[in-house]
């Protein structure tokens, strides 16, 4: 018995002790490119090797006879090859086929800047960037304006993208449209966005050619995705020169749900007492804002999220009347806005996903303007074009929205997506004693496919059907884009799309006899991106059709186009510890709309716009320094006057170039048990003169420059948090 | 009868040989790992462990070492594409975890997440930092007496500046605990992870 075992063991060992046979060969991919790092193994044994930088492998094995060689490399389909190992060296070559994977596949990048972390290498902007962009004061749109495509428009809020007006850019949160993304504003003064950046894990700024999931925006979509369950519970407090705030966030022990709320009070009385403003504020701006949220993880890995925010603002200011400088326009504004967003994302299994969104918002404004004399007493002049500046306007704007999107994964990583959207807009106005109501049921159906043909070639094909009840018109908007990988880390995309947008309410109150306005985008884009560097160049042509005309008749006979080229470069690599980006936009646009007598470059479009954003965090003193420089060439302005049965250009010109240097500094510290971020920020550090355009008197004899209410804005604030270490956001250079 | 005996003995011999082959293979791999001077040596060691793992199929240790060696190459070669390496490490970690959910594997997961975070800490902190924390929590849950858990926690805090809740004082607690646990630590087998004692002691010295 013992003998037997000995013999058997000996036999087994003799196999090992026997002569080794060399196995060698080469590993390539399907196109003949060598594949260093591929692993080759005699199946079931420990014997094998790795392909070197020339794709060659060579190893010795004790295995004999009929064997299987396995060649594998992450991202490629494994290949097995039968061989017979005798006494002579064996030579085998392998060709591995690439697997189409989300990490490797190209993504369609034409027209969009993706922020966030969805695709590591393509990261351009993160929500942290919003906090640490000099002069942006944590306003999302202010940061987006440092990217190519957007104009440096300072006299009104909104994103003016590629020759498009502000209302042609729409904002979406978790898929649904936001009706009033900005605080209620005063003519000639831009207001801030309503939403704080840390609500969002990712933001996509699309300057054209965007997905069929989004409609009713001719120029641009700012698509924001809210965060899921936060990491830890925390309490926060903030104090600054303009506001006070407090908040909390509670994460359940099992981390399956969370809820939170915040309150902030902004009061500019102390600030305006120190920093002189050009307008005479008789009601200094005060703003209350409150928000609340809950988030619940579902059993199947889905997520239900609810977010609500309420804001109330009150202000009043006097400015000289452009027709008669001895008179003043006293403008007053009260606004309340309540916004709700409920979304449910779920994995239905079998490759199906579902996204449901519901939103409701209601916005109420009470606006009034009075003509006052030097003693601030209301007066009637008897001059009609001055007296029409006296008005009272009460508005209400509601939006109720339902959106459903289903995703089905087809072969590989290709996906088809379809769904529908229902929006109910309800707008009501009381202008002096003139009442008007404007309801609109807007229904849309859309479908889209992300097709990954190979890792090198992807296509996005979609279409969108819309019907608006207020104008009783339907449209169909096709969208196509293609992306092709041109080399390592480099790709090219092209996009084509048709975009429709219903006319603005201002005009619908006058007549509903309109059609959709229309824009057709053609975009070509090249992007080269590594983890720490991004280079992007994009050229586009945008054709406008059916723009609104208000003269000689209210119709859709307006036209226009925009073309341009844009460059972007972001680099976190070249200079240690320094993160910077450069963007440049060239824009050539003309349009004939509203009362324009001919095609003109609109007053919101500059030909050249450029920004430099530099960020540096100095770990030794826990302080970040951020500087932003923005430049734009002058914008045209016109005085269009009615002369008989036509409008003529009575006067025109170009504003001076726009220059702005913004600076901010954030010092991270701890105060007691709280983590603190101390922020100092100054806009327009160099005190450059900024002129955004001109207002003309009725007879055209006087013009007045539109300038910011104060040349600079100073901000000093302290943000405290207990619980989670928010300062970690801005550091960890050493880790 | 004789026939049966032959079959049984054949079977036993096969088992015996396989066992020793695994142990011998692992031993050889660990020697390679210890002797590796360059990133290429480490890759070779990693590939060897992966071959053992794929052949054995039911052992997490070779996958663990394959991922560990692969992770080390990321530090040995400063020019390495850490994201690409992490993709490989994560693949190996997932295979190890599918065999056994072990504290050591969670520790390695934390190390890989931190390595990937270093590529662009400012932007990646939120995602990879959270992932690293979660992995370490899981590691602690799986084995509260694993000294490497406390070493890694201490090391992370050590690299975090003082003003942000890190620093020497915060790290020292964990370094002390790790060194304390290493005094009595016995690996489950000679093939189980043993590294970390010297590192923890050095960390403790640095924290003084």
Write up what this structure looks like.
The complex is a heterodimer of chains A (735) and B (208). Helices cover 5% and strands 56% of the residues of chain A. Chain A is mainly β and 735 residues long. Chain A folds into 2 domains: 79 residues, Immunoglobulin-like (Sandwich), CATH 2.60.40; 619 residues, TonB-dependent receptor, beta-barrel domain (Maltoporin, Chain A, Beta Barrel), CATH 2.40.170. The termini of chain A are far apart. Chain B folds into 2 domains: 97 residues, no CATH class; 64 residues, no CATH class. Chain B has 9 helices and no strands. In chain B, helix 2 packs antiparallel against helix 3, helix 3 runs parallel beside helix 5 and helix 5 runs antiparallel to helix 6. The longest helix of chain B has 34 residues. In chain B, 47% of the residues are buried. About 6% of the residues of chain B have low confidence. The chains are: A mainly beta (735), B mainly alpha (208). Chains A and B meet through helix 1, strand 3 and strand 34 of A and helix 1, helix 2, helix 4 and helix 6 of B.
The 3D shape of chain A can be described as globular
Query: What's the N-to-C terminus distance of chain A?
Result: 62 Å
Beta-strand residue percentage of chain B: under 5%
Question: From the coordinates shown, what is the CATH architecture of the largest domain in chain A?
Answer: Beta Barrel
Tally of structural domains of chain A:
2
Low-confidence stretches of chain A: 1-17, 115-123, 725-735
Q: What amount of the residues of chain A lies in strands?
A: over 45%
CATH class of the largest domain in chain A reads Mainly Beta
Give the overall pLDDT of chain A as a whole number: 89
Low-confidence stretches of chain B: 5-16
What gyration radius of chain B follows from the Cα positions, in whole Å?
A: 19 Å
Number of H- or I-type helical stretches of chain B: 9
Helix-strand makeup class of chain A = mainly beta
